[in-house]
Specification:
Distance between the termini: 46 Å
Strand content: 15-25%
Radius of gyration: 17 Å
Largest sheet: 6 strands, parallel
Number of strands: 6
Helix content: 25-40%
Strand order of the largest sheet: 3-2-1-4-5-6
Bound molecules: adenosine monophosphate
Length: about 160
């Protein structure tokens, strides 16, 4: 019911489209604040209610407290109407589970997941899930800063970037 009211509000503002962010940690809150400031409609889900304190006072989206691996919580977030879902909890298993539910059960067009373990990346790609791997991104940046020593950074699929 809570989600329904919020969706109506979004429908007036953005024609019904919104982005669901799962995990309101450092990255999730930063992304949510940035998208909200840009005028995007955002729903943030976190199992720890205190995590929402990271949202800025100007955040204009919706927060839902709950474990995102539970279908009832995803239903509360009306995930099925989202244009994109971004899973950025601190747990790879949670991120892959929520990302798979978003893709397979709720047929979300764009699903992006943070992944700490680059070796799991190919599993996500099989399901059409886009991934962000902090370790790989950091290695690429270090590679740029150390041009004298080509590191030959590989992504999770063993491809050299
Ligand atoms: P950080 O480590 O700063 O990226 O924060 C990760 C966030 O993910 C924390 O706020 C956690 O409470 C949240 N989180 C972890 N597992 C879940 C889950 N199953 N459902 C919703 N949020 C979660």
């Amino acid at each position: 019911m809570k989600g329904m009211i919020l969706t109506e509000k979004f429908a007036v503002k953005k024609g019904g489209g919104y982005i669901v962010i799962v995990g309101c940690g450092r990255l999730g809150a930063y992304l949510a604040n940035t998208l909200s400031n840009l005028g995007e409609s955002v729903i943030v889900v976190d199992k720890d209610e205190s995590a929402f304190r990271k949202l800025s006072p100007s955040f204009g989206g919706i927060v839902i407290a709950g474990d995102a691996t539970e279908i009832t919580v995803l239903n509360d977030a009306e995930i099925e109407k989202a244009t994109a879902v971004v899973t950025v909890t601190n747990n790879d298993n949670t991120n892959i589970m929520v990302a798979q539910l978003a893709k397979e059960i709720f047929s979300i067009g764009q699903v992006i997941a943070r992944l700490y373990d680059p070796e799991c990346e190919c599993v996500y790609h099989e399901f059409g899930i886009e991934t962000i791997c902090p370790a790989v991104l950091s290695m690429k940046e270090i590679d740029k800063l150390l041009p004298a020593i080509p590191l030959g950074v590989m992504d999770g699929e063993g491809e050299t970037e």
